[in-house]
Amino acid sequence: MSWTNKHLLGLEGVGRDEILTVLDTAAKFREVLDRPVKKVPTLRGVTIVNLFFEASTRTRMSFELAEKRLSADTLNFSASTSSVKKGETLRDTARNIEAMMVDMAVIRHSSPGAPHFLTQHLDVSIINAGDGAHEHPTQALLDLFTMRDHIGDLAGKRVTIVGDIVHSRVAKSDAWGLAALGADVTFCGPTTFMPAEVERLGVTVTSDIHEATHDADVVNILRIQKERQEGGFLPSLREYTRLFGIDQARLAEMRPDVLIMHPGPINRGVELAPDVADGERSVILDQVTNGVAVRMAIIYLLSRVRAQERIEEPEILAEVGL
Ligand code: CP
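Output (structure tokens, whole complex):
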């Protein structure tokens, strides 16, 4: 076990051994999910709050289910039905919830760095469930798990990520995680969709969809974030679909064993044709299933670190004579 972090804020700086620890732990929990009784008593007495300041279907339900499968107590917070509507700040909201003696907080927020901010004001373990366009580490870990499950060791494998990369936290977390496992990553899309820091990610960049996908082991397609296109990133959605959309004709130019992935939610008929999304090369629903096991693994590993800290506390107090 080489996981020693108290928080999961991103995959930047997380090493190969740590990622493999998460994936190997998730593989054990994935087996639990296939049992008739899909629950273990591991985290009885641990309380976890899910703080969602932004919309979510998959991540939110997956975290809640992972917590329940581990027998933790779960609290769900939705900004739209909370005192945030009366002007309460993120810090006050989080500190009030911490005062109810929670052990861990999962946070999704539209501001990059919101999870990091909470680590400075709370004593609980923090998991980033997506912060603006910065990172979405558990999505990347479930992507890595799904890829490894289908094609084995990712070292030297070619993974192409197509689409709205500039707005995508998934693309960045995927790139960090894939690099740590030795995969070759290509970003493909219009040049207006490439983030300023793309060189830092160590990926190949191209606007040629055929070049990017014809020999890829995995093609991960991103949602066009329609709500964030007002900056003139795209001439039109129809133009994007014609140039970069993945349909049967484009799939036919790829390897016959290519994996088609998408983090969801899908704009059907925009970045991905419905018959490809639902077709035999698609592992999109496997990603969702695996997400529960991966989140169980992360929650379990962070809880272990927290428990170890607590066990060490009496020794520290004895050392200082208390
Ligand atoms: N993939 C993902 O983060 O989906 P949600 O926004 O539904 O959580």
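The mean pLDDT is 94.
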